[in-house]
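Before surveying the methods themselves, let us examine one representative protein, written as a sequence plus integers encoding its fold.
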Amino acid sequence: MKNYRAYGHEPYKIVMVHGGPGALGDLGYVADKISSSFGVIEALQTMTTIAELIDELIEIIDSQCSVPVTLVGHSWGAWLAYLMVAERSDLVSKLVLIGSGPFESDYAKQIESTRLARLDKEQRRLLEDLTREFYSKVTNDKDRLLAEIGSIIENADTYSPNDVDDGSYRIKIDGDMFSGVWNEAEKLRSSGVLLDMASKLNCQVLVIHGEYDPHPVAGVIEPLKNRVEDFESVILAKCGHSPWKESFAHDKFFRTLMDAIQ
């Protein structure tokens, strides 16, 4: 499978990195929407370890883009973009972290309880059953299970859904990638290695985060703001984890993103 999609025209100076891990094509709508003004590469993750994913992202930028680029990551993709910049800061002039996971484990403890509090009893029971089956050693249906889990979680993560239909951009859900990569990523966070990488960032960093996002914004801003020299944050009101899917925040999100790119 080709590991990127191009939108707009050269030079490609914007690179989008989707979340998941394993949500291939999840930033297609965002990439397409801004491509009327900028050439955009949507990087698609096809590897199964973080080291391989970093190398893959570097190769995509090296081969397809006019460097330095603005690197935009969402959710897990924000971490991957951050880790790549720590390794190859010469390729990136600005790093944009959208709905990033918290960089310290203490903040991460809030995510599950916040989500569960937003679900009714039946949704919580279904989420528990699907999650148990997903992590079962005997299941062969991880892609479907992850998609169903993601649908429930998206309901909890969204403040006021709009009518954006981004499903046509999605390529696949990869449950095996999620299991392997996320387990590795969690260890990076719990060990403190993830946050230590902040000292290697030599570019502008912008955090865009919804105030309703279960991933606590303090867990992104507080650890980074004193470790990154050129740091800025924008908190979007009435906005959850994916701002382009929000009724109230959609337009402000794109204005903020376009301003950052320009």
The longest strand covers residues 92-98. Residues 109 and 245 are 25 Å apart (CA to CA).
